[in-house]
Protein: Ribulose-phosphate 3-epimerase
Organism: Dyella dinghuensis
Amino acid sequence: KQSPIIAPSILSADFARLGEDTAKVLAAGGDWVHYDVMDNHYVPNLTMGPMVLKALRNYGITAPIDVHLMVKPVDQIVPDFAKAGASRISFHPEATEHVDRTIGLIKDSGCKVGLVFNPATPLNWLDYVLDKLDLVLIMSVNPGFGGQKFIPEALEKLRRVRRLIDESGYDIRLEVDGGVTADNIGEIAAAGADTFVAGSAIFNAPDYQAVIAKMRQALG
Ligand code: DX5
Ligand code: ZN
């Protein structure tokens, strides 16, 4: 298991001051920027595309940007995000016609690749592609909105994927997204996650640094 990564989701940042707020959360101890892309089609909400990502890079954000695509279709937008400065691109297998092709497209674009599992998405999507992935992302809410409650069934799913990754011996991060707080992050880590997305728990707090420090303390 790898050292823990905390990835603040800027979905809950102040969009009118996005560069400033993103820099602030990184200075407060965030490791990666989690960047949620919603299309009002695959999920019932609309957020931001490659242009806003590019603007963050131009503003001076150099931290890894972890793009979580909740869009359908996937392939045509991949090169735009890569060019804009994405570090990792993760997608939902139900949102593309050819999962293996999309994985290849993301890798060819120079980004690391992740596959995302909704609460009801079965893990057998991993059967023939695990060796090609850099990251598996387990959703602990239904995608579309920040501020939802952690679905406890995600813990068993994390344990299963932890076992699969460990047995495979591959270098794959296990990320969790949705309802992560300083209070439940310890239990989530114990289930096998090593990469933690947190949006509202960080951005709705008065002191980002205090929340992130509390999370790290719970991670041991
Ligand atoms: C939900 C997004 C999450 C969201 C998490 O569809 O994928 O990344 O920002 O927000 P919280 O941490 O508030 O559940
Ligand atoms: Zn996300």
Q: What stands out?
A: The pocket of D-xylitol-5-phosphate (ligand 1) is lined by residues 9, 11-12, 34, 36, 68, 141, 143-144, 146-148, 177-180, 197-201 (CB under 6 Å). Residues 154-168 form the longest helix (15 residues). The mean pLDDT is 98. Residues 5-219 form a domain with the TIM Barrel fold (CATH 3.20.20.70).
